[in-house]
Write a structure and sequence with these properties.
Blueprint: H1 2-20, E1 29-40, E2 43-51, H2 53-57, E3 67-74, H3 77-83, E4 91-93, E5 99-103, H4 104-109, H5 112-120, E6 129-133, H6 138-143, H7 152-166, H8 175-183, E7 190-198, E8 216-226, E9 229-233, H9 236-245, E10 252-259, E11 262-280, E12 283-300, H10 308-337, H11 344-351, H12 353-359, H13 363-368, E13 371-382
Parallel strand pairs: 1-4, 1-5, 5-6, 6-7, 12-13
Antiparallel strand pairs: 1-2, 2-3, 7-8, 8-9, 10-11, 11-12
Helix pairs in contact: 9-10, 11-12
Length: 395
């Protein structure tokens, strides 16, 4: 009896889900893979990148693009969405959005209205990435036919997922993460940028894919925000430092000059970040403790790192370089950007709530005076298959 009752309950729970599958037939909707939002005299220009199901599903080569673009302008995002029905035969369907690309000028004006629309509308899921179009428009980014994954909105999503694992300077946020960072008094968000790093003629046509050197999109360094507004850009090394401090590094690469004649490339295999807050004369001091395990991938020179003293020196040089990049990034955030993209305010809040209550209303100013100490400990665990140079230098 218990088994029968459980079976009936399961059917009752599944029935609404099964019935909803037939509410919208595929031939009545356009599956939107990405949104692009640019600034316009009317307010916004929104680009909807929609899937061309016929081209994607075909087993034969089809001389059609795998996506279509619809563009509408207006001052209200909800109205713009509905106005697309004047040119599109099907209603836009947003369950499969992978990327939202924001024009740089829109990002500088603020994202609150956009986030309210995306979060309030029940058709949007919250698992897509926000990306800033740097030096170009969101429309141009989504118009580009990209190699391998020809739908640029999907490629951007996959590129961020992939580079988060293997290349630490790149990262971005999804809807809830972005909203939380904007609402937090002790932390400001940072979003990935994308640019056209290799422009070419007819980048928006499928014919360009026949070229071995088509136009390409590239995820660039992170854009720093104050609340919901973009205020500046970090370069690649600063983006790496930011993700290192915030504990978002999984794997990456680094390089150092051991001496005038020796350049060493390193692979970061493991990274750990600890942030500890202490008080000095009643004022918070943040201590960032970074530890990493690395391996040597390339040695341009003739140094034998099986010698422990030389290996220790290499560790020391690496530590100093990491500390230097972290200090440079902190200085830029405190003196130029004046925004806490590291979340140090949240760390102070967790460690000393009463102290934070005194600081939080003027945290932008207090952050610029915050003392932050960096301690780095790297260990080179692996020197690769070649313990010594494979080329014997003859005198």
């Amino acid at each position: 009896m218990k088994a029968k009752a459980l079976f009936v309950l399961l059917i009752l729970l599944l029935f609404p889900l099964l019935s909803s599958c037939s509410v919208r037939e595929l031939n009545t909707i356009s599956l939107v893979t990405a949104l692009g939002i640019d600034k316009d005299e009317a307010g916004y220009m929104v680009t909807y990148q929609t899937l061309n199901a016929k081209a994607v599903a075909s087993k034969k080569s089809v001389n059609e693009s795998s996506f279509f673009l619809y563009t509408e302008k207006g001052n209200d995002l909800g109205e713009i969405e509905r106005r697309t029905t004047t040119q599109a035969a099907r209603k836009m369907y947003f369950e499969h959005v992978r990327s939202v690309v924001i024009g740089e000028d829109v990002a500088r004006d603020g994202l609150k209205e956009i986030l309210d629309y995306l979060f309030r509308t029940n058709e949007f899921r919250s698992d897509f990435y926000f990306i800033i179009a740097k030096g170009t428009t969101a429309n141009q980014i989504l118009s580009t036919v990209t190699p391998i994954q020809s739908i640029s909105g999907i490629q951007l999503f996959e590129s961020i997922d992939n580079s988060k694992i293997w290349w630490a300077p790149t990262n971005s946020l999804k809807t809830v993460e972005l909203i939380n960072d904007i609402n937090a008094k002790g932390k400001s968000p940072a979003l990935a940028g994308v640019e056209l790093y290799q422009e070419a003629e007819d980048m928006a046509t499928i014919e360009k894919l026949k070229d071995s050197n088509p136009g390409k999109l590239k995820l660039t360094a992170l854009g720093a925000f104050h609340n919901d507004k973009l205020i500046g850009w970090l370069d690649e090394s600063e983006s790496l430092a930011l993700n290192s401090i915030t504990g978002k590094v999984k794997n990456s690469a680094a390089s150092v000059d051991y001496d005038e004649n020796t350049h060493v490339s390193l692979a970061i295999k493991f990274w750990k970040t600890k942030i500890k807050v202490s008080l000095s004369d009643g004022k918070p001091v943040v201590n960032v403790i970074l530890s990493a395990e690395m391996s040597i991938t390339t040695v341009a020179g003739d140094v034998d790192f099986t010698d422990q003293k030389k290996l220790n020196k290499l560790n020391s040089i690496t530590n100093k370089k990491i500390i230097g990049i972290c200090k440079k990034t902190l200085g830029k955030a405190q003196n130029e950007l004046k925004t806490d993209i590291f979340g140090f305010g949240e760390s102070i809040h967790r460690a000393y709530p009463k102290v934070w209550n005194k600081l939080k209303d003027d945290w932008d100013t207090e952050f610029t005076k915050l003392q932050v100490n960096f301690m780095v400990d790297t260990i080179i665990m692996d020197m690769g298959q070649n313990l010594k140079s494979i080329i014997n230098e003859e005198e």
